[in-house]
Specification:
With about 100 residues, this protein is of the alpha+beta class. It has four helices and two strands. Strands 1-2 form a two-stranded antiparallel sheet. The N and C termini lie far apart (about 50 Å).
Length: about 100
């Protein structure tokens, strides 16, 4: 059901497709990396308890942890996420530049 959810901000793309589209519009690709490794377990938990995710204490507490992490930005979780991003990162970040017009 995750892939059939209409609207919202959920979009699933392949990095290579995004790269190709951006290059076709004149952007120059530089590099990519993965991000949001600490968010991946949250989505796994939501999928695990799909029908009762609204009442799941585990989902609720993990969400609270993510909000705390976002607001407080502790060094420990920043370092942990940096280490886990290449393995568990749920989002790909692509870097481009637009060449100046001649």
């Amino acid at each position: 059901a995750y892939h059939d959810t209409p609207g919202g901000h959920i979009r699933i793309f392949k990095a290579s497709t995004l790269r190709d589209v951006m290059r076709a519009t004149g952007f120059q690709y530089h590099r990519q990396h993965w991000a949001h490794a600490l968010h991946a377990p949250y989505w796994w938990l939501k999928c695990l308890v799909w029908k009762r995710q609204e009442s799941s204490l585990l989902v609720k507490h993990y969400h609270r942890f993510l909000v705390w992490d976002l607001m407080k930005k502790p060094r420990l979780t920043h370092y942990l996420e940096k280490c886990l991003n290449p393995v568990l990162g749920k989002s790909v970040v692509l870097y481009f530049s637009k060449p100046e017009a001649s």
